[in-house]
Write a structure and sequence with these properties.
By secondary structure, the chain is an alpha+beta fold. 25% of the residues lie in helices and 30% in strands. It has six helices and 15 strands. The strands form three sheets. Strands 1, 2, 3, 5, 7, 8, 12 and 13 form an eight-stranded mixed beta sheet that branches. It starts with a helix and ends with a strand.
């Protein structure tokens, strides 16, 4: 893809994001056909936004999620600074088409995992982690039907990134625990509505973190110290409406609440 086409696609996606409007798909001349082209557009969207990239998200970390959006594996998207919200905050749903909340494990990096020619192993990736946090994501897409456009276009659209919330670092010894078996409970307006575990995130959130370290090593500049990674929803996404509140309870790792306006 030519640079001018990459920039044209990025400008189009950013305009729709800012205006809370949607498009069917990107025009043929600037439509990505590969992951590499999708990530190139995503990078340009971040640059055009004028915002700092403060972290990354992983989408489609379960088989059900992959089938829902018709992709053959997980995809990564960058998190922009202006989209972060504090725990307990009210998140605006105006213009949001997906209207769901997700409970996610988040890792804050303490060291760099730069781009390189060999793969990172799980132990090497975990050694670069500073802390584990509970997180909530409220995703959205700039496409009218995000289930039909395919992985390259979804990657270009930040892998459906929108709002996100990172809780305080857990004081529990998370490295010694089995995150795959760690339970997460989701409440809406005080009622328990979903339960899940880390196993819903590529089998284990630690594996998901290693996946994105290698994805960004292949298609980007790697992970940097200080960045946060939200690894995918542990529970079935909760439908939310204005006036609702949710609580994501990670047990010993803490809980996080959000309201919607």
């Amino acid at each position: 893809m030519k640079l001018e086409d990459t920039r044209a696609a990025a400008a189009m996606l950013l305009q729709h994001w800012r205006q809370s409007t949607r498009l069917g798909e990107l025009p043929a001349h600037c439509r990505p056909e590969t992951r590499a082209e999708g990530y190139a557009i995503q990078s340009e969207v971040a640059k055009l936004s004028g915002q700092n990239v403060v972290g990354w998200k992983i989408a489609a970390t379960s088989v059900a999620g992959q089938q829902h959006i018709q992709v053959d594996g997980p995809i990564a998207g960058c998190l922009l600074a202006a989209r972060a919200r504090e725990g307990g905050a009210r998140i605006a749903l105006a213009g949001n088409n997906m209207k769901v909340a997700e409970a996610e494990f988040a890792f804050r990096m303490g060291g760099d995992l730069p781009k390189r020619g060999t793969s990172y192993g799980v132990d090497e990736v975990l050694a670069a982690v500073a802390s584990l946090h509970p997180a909530i994501e409220v995703p959205d897409s700039r496409y009218e039907d995000y289930t039909r456009v395919g992985a390259p276009q979804l990657i270009a659209d930040m892998a459906c990134a929108c709002w996100f919330m990172i809780g305080p670092a857990t004081r529990a010894d998370w490295r010694a625990l089995d995150l795959a078996q760690h339970g997460v409970a989701a409440y809406r307006n005080g009622a328990l509505v979903a339960q899940g575990s880390g196993a819903n995130v590529l089998g284990d959130p630690k594996m998901a973190l290693a996946w994105i370290a290698n994805e960004l090593s292949t298609y980007g500049d790697g992970l940097r110290a200080g960045e946060v990674v939200i690894t995918g929803t542990c529970v079935t996404p909760l439908p939310v409406s204005a006036g609702d509140s949710v609580k994501m309870d990670f047990g010993a790792f803490g809980a996080l609440e959000a309201g919607f306006a």
